[in-house]
Specification:
The complex is a heterodimer of chains A (90) and B (172).
Chain A lengths: L13 H12 L1 H14 L9 H11 L4 H23 L3
Helix pairs in contact in A: 1-2, 1-4, 2-3, 3-4
Chain B lengths: L11 H9 L12 H10 L4 E7 L3 E8 L4 H6 L1 E3 L7 H5 L3 E3 L12 H4 L5 E8 L5 E9 L9 H23 L1
Antiparallel strand pairs in B: 1-2, 1-6, 2-3, 4-5, 5-6
The chains are: A mainly alpha (90), B alpha+beta (172).
């Protein structure tokens, strides 16, 4: 069975997620949008669990066109990590 | 994830077009099924996929073939695994006869772990001239796809026509 290291996917982090968002909508907007989404979901920063990061990404997707694309990208990356963590050897 | 070779990935104009046409949306696209079937049959390939290139991930809009369950569950992959990225700059159909000899892709987990070896892909270019993704055929054996590129591009153009028609109908 393949090992998760062979897929080169690190544990997703909030820092990476906000950075990816900032690449599209700017750092201030990204920080604000992320913070509001975390708050709206009743979570606290830093968000660490991949399942919570996915919920925030889904929330971000509801705000606008660029954030929807960025959020979907984040979601794919987070679910990839979750799926790999479940199905291949750690 | 920034791929320096493909600055087009983060071009806001391209991403707005991706969003306007709903390429990023998680929806069933039955209207593309016959096209992936045609690609798989004509090119005698086990996999045929319509892929959308977002900023940091690719998403699968339609596909045929025995995709591993975990990839099907995700509905896409991280962008650094996307074989269609070169279409962003080349803007023309291309083939790779053996990924294990290609520096850009030989360490890609879809090659090293999942065993994909060869590729033929054509860009999905919107009416505004922006590359949305690709229509591709994949095989697990090294092979040449050369004689089918014109046909593949015609089918890719048809994919775009259908995506644009669907987006227009949804907006109406």
């Amino acid at each position: 069975m393949a090992r998760i290291e062979e897929f080169g996917q690190d544990v997703p982090t909030e820092k990476d997620a906000v950075k990816a968002l900032a690449d599209l909508i700017g750092p201030q907007m990204a920080e604000g949008l992320w913070g509001l989404s975390v708050q709206a979901l009743g979570l606290h920063r830093p968000v660490t669990a991949p399942s919570d990061l996915r919920r925030v990404a889904e929330h971000v997707m509801e705000v606008g066109e660029l954030s929807r694309v960025a959020g979907r990208s984040l979601k794919v990356r987070i679910i990839t990590y979750e799926a790999l963590a479940r199905t291949v050897q750690a | 994830m920034r791929l320096p070779a493909y600055p087009q990935l983060h071009d806001p104009g391209r991403l707005r077009e991706v969003a306007r046409l709903g390429v990023d949306r998680e929806v069933e696209r039955a209207y593309l099924a016959d096209i992936v079937d045609t690609v798989a049959d004509r090119l005698d390939a086990p996999f045929a996929i319509v892929t959308g290139l977002l900023s940091d991930a690719q998403v699968f809009l339609a596909g045929r073939g025995p995709v591993p369950a975990w990839i099907a569950e995700v509905g896409g992959t991280p962008i650094e695994w996307a074989f269609c990225c070169p279409l962003l700059s080349e803007r023309a159909a291309r083939t790779v006869s053996d990924f294990t000899t290609e520096p850009e892709f030989r360490d890609n987990p879809l090659v090293t772990v999942e065993g994909i070896r060869s590729y033929a892909g054509a860009p999905l270019i919107s009416g505004s001239g922006l590359v949305l993704g690709g229509l591709c055929a994949l095989d697990v054996r090294p092979r040449q796809f050369g004689t089918h590129l014109a046909e593949l591009q015609e089918l890719a153009d048809e994919v775009v026509r259908r995506i644009e028609a669907e987006a227009e109908a949804s907006a109406a």
